[in-house]
Amino acid sequence: MRTSTPTAIGYYRFTDIFFEWHQALPNPEDVSPLKAILAYNALVHPDHPLRKEGVDGIELFVGTFDNGEARLLFSSAQVEYIRYYIHTMGLTKELIPIPNSDYLITQSSMQSCSPAIYNHASNLKKAIKGIEKNNKRLKGTGTRLASRRLAFERVRTFWSSKKGVWIAIDFESWDRDHTLLLEFGWSAVRFEDGKEIRSEGHWITYEYRNYRNTYVADNKDRYSFGKSEMVKKKDFKQRVAALFDEAKTHGPVFYVFHDPSQDIKTLYELEAPITNLTYVLPDTAPTEGLFVVDTAQLFAALEGETSANTRGLEQIARHLGLSPYDLHNAGNDAHYTMEACKAMASGDPVDAQREKRWPLHISATQPKAVFREDNDEPQSDQEDIM
After folding, report:
1. Is the pTM higher than 0.85?
2. Cα gap 253→231, rounded to integer Å
3. Is the residue at 219 inside a domain?
4. Tens digits of residue pLDDT in 65-102
5. Is 215 a domain residue?
6. Which residues fall within 8 angstroms of residue 52, CB to CB, at 6 or more apart?
7. Which residue of 46, 279, 302, 349 shows the fewest CB atoms closer than 10 Å?
8. Are 298 and 259 contacting, i.e. CB atoms less than 8 angstroms apart?
């Protein structure tokens, strides 16, 4: 690894910094201090200089490339800080040279770059091996899974930025006439000073309060997370518009759906203020805009599904350990949609999260997790172990 002055801000592969950087140093006396500060046990130690306040571990990054493969990364700022730190502490006589710019990975060369936290040396070692193993699994799986994995990591990045509002919504219509809107449910998360603030609600259309479903569960009177509110049909548009307009005052809005097609159609019919709503997630955390997040697609990425198939909300919630009940109530559905989104978005990178959640269901060669299910009920890894 040749060394020189960097030409851009970006990232370096963890393996390049860990295994190659010290070999390129011109002064042999500088090798030991650099290797010491980059040792696995040192990186995860609470006193490591790269440790960020309030973060339980070392924050590294997982970059996803066009082919869907991932790499564990240091930021160039971290690399710069390491060389200045060991020099300031008197461990090197001169500033050591930084890696050659040929090794620099720019943001534009990646599809996504999301943070990853490691607080134990064994976890860090396992992450590196796991990334390589999953890259091998992904070869030849096609662009659908790569696109899903990209969206998954971008959602993780946006959630970790703690900006804007995440609002899950769900509509329930009468199963004998889908033009009759019976319920609306919503569940929102926003952040103030880094702290999560949750709010949610359930509305029943007053004029249709006595309508009962015939073919699907009728649970509109079983909202589990507050008191249902009766809203007259003529007020529905105004109430939805007011809810959405208020959400925009907090920055970007991430509308979370479980399979959004029908709900978005209903929003347009209600003339909701969702102009410029987009399914395309930006490369970096946005400061404004309206974005669609689909938990069905997020879970497909986590599961490793390569086909167009996706799972229902109840199945997904159970696989994520959420124990849902009384679904087909718009408020409950919105709540569990948000819980599913939060569980995935606030977790580890996609491959590490798979390994933690379902260690007994991951194939050594196939990208998709394989579950043993009875009557559509997933069997947990803990149940397998017992």
Report:
1. no
2. 24
3. yes
4. 776 678 899 999 999 999 999 999 999 999 999 888 88
5. yes
6. 59
7. 46
8. no
